[in-house]
Amino acid sequence: MNFTEKALKEKFGGKKIGGLVRYFREVDSTNIMACRLARDGAPEGTVVIADAQGKGKGRLNRVWQSPPGRNLYVSIILRPRIAPPAAPQLTLVAGVAVAELLASCGLKDVTIKWPNDVLISGKKVCGILTEMNSSASGVDFIILGIGLNVNMNRENFEPALRDRATSLKIETGKTHDRIEIISGLLNLIETWYSVFLRTGFPGVRDAWLNYADILGRPIRVVFREDTQTGVVMGIDDDGTILMKSADGATQRVIAGDVYLLKE
Ligand code: BT5
After folding, report:
1. Is residue 9 scored above 90 in pLDDT?
2. What is the band of 64 on the pLDDT scale with cuts at 50, 70, 90?
3. Which of 255, 236, 232 is nearest to 244 (CA)?
4. Ligand 1 mean position to 132 CA, how many Å?
5. Which residues lie across from 77 on neighbouring strands?
6. Do residues 13 and 47 touch, judged by C-beta distance below 8 A?
7. How far is the centre of ligand 1, averaged over its atoms, from the C-alpha of 248 (Å)?
8. pLDDT by residue (tens digit) across 96-155?
9. Contacts of 214 (CB under 8 A, 6+ apart)
């Protein structure tokens, strides 16, 4: 089956997430396109998929490598009734869905790196970018963007990423049908999103911790020019990391990049 809107529509007709699919051969960024559609009133669950992105973006204006013909670049429009500060928790929800998807492909060493990376054997296979539009009355919409490397070969990554990034193909030794992968992903997002809507992050926490494997581990947190170290005590109901620093104080980590330190 081709990687087309029609094939996706057949799979997702009637579902909440993916009931409406917009497929593009190339966009600047699926997050930007989804944002445009959401502003025009696209309903919750609308999914934007592109075969390539000219300006795929990560956090803090970083670039997401998005060549054609190989990967998944997906953005989902969500309109949950949650308080705006809760929006970043959806990144963690999506991380669990991606990790479960990879585990279901038979991959063993799948980990979530707080807040928005999924790794296989320590190499990044997926990045998640959650963006929100809110007003005084609350969340208007959230764009949940997911980039998943599916059929990238090592040489398809730019040199700086070759030892830090990976794909399903590199890890399993075989080419994957992107329609199957996107179906599995959207189904798992639907499952975990509905858990999140019912319970908030607490209902997702155990699954998240199962893949994150950071409880009791020493970490370094880098946020812009600021670096902190400490030992992870837990992850709070709102998805912030609770970390004990060397002076015994408990710190709440709400943003940044987390690196596991050798114990
Ligand atoms: C992320 O940012 O990891 C979020 C990436 C989200 C991409 C999706 S694709 C669909 C949707 N539309 C968009 O425009 N974006 C979303 P961050 O944690 O800031 O990591 C960015 C870093 O990951 C870069 O600076 C590189 O080091 C690395 N990177 C870039 N492209 C990569 C790739 N294809 N695979 C693995 N690592 C990559």
Report:
1. no
2. very high
3. 232
4. 18
5. 143
6. no
7. 34
8. 999 999 999 999 999 999 999 999 999 999 999 999 999 988 999 999 999 999 999 999
9. 114, 232, 241, 258, 260
**DSSP annotation of 61:** G
Which tokens go with 147? Answer: 């980039």
The full length of the chain comes to 263
Domains, the chain: 5-211 (3.30.930.10), 215-260 (2.30.30.100)
Q: What is the pLDDT of residues 221-252, one digit of tens each?
A: 999 999 999 999 999 999 999 999 999 999 99
Sign of CA dihedral 241, 246, 250, 255: negative
Give the binding-site residues of ligand 1, using a 6 Å CB cut-off: 29-31, 53, 56-60, 62, 64-65, 73-75, 116-117, 124, 127-129, 145-147, 149, 161, 165
Report the predicted TM-score, pTM, of the whole model to 2 decimal places: 0.96
Contact (Cβ atoms closer than 8 angstroms) between residue 100 and residue 187: no
How many whole angstroms from 129 Cα to the centroid of ligand 1? 8
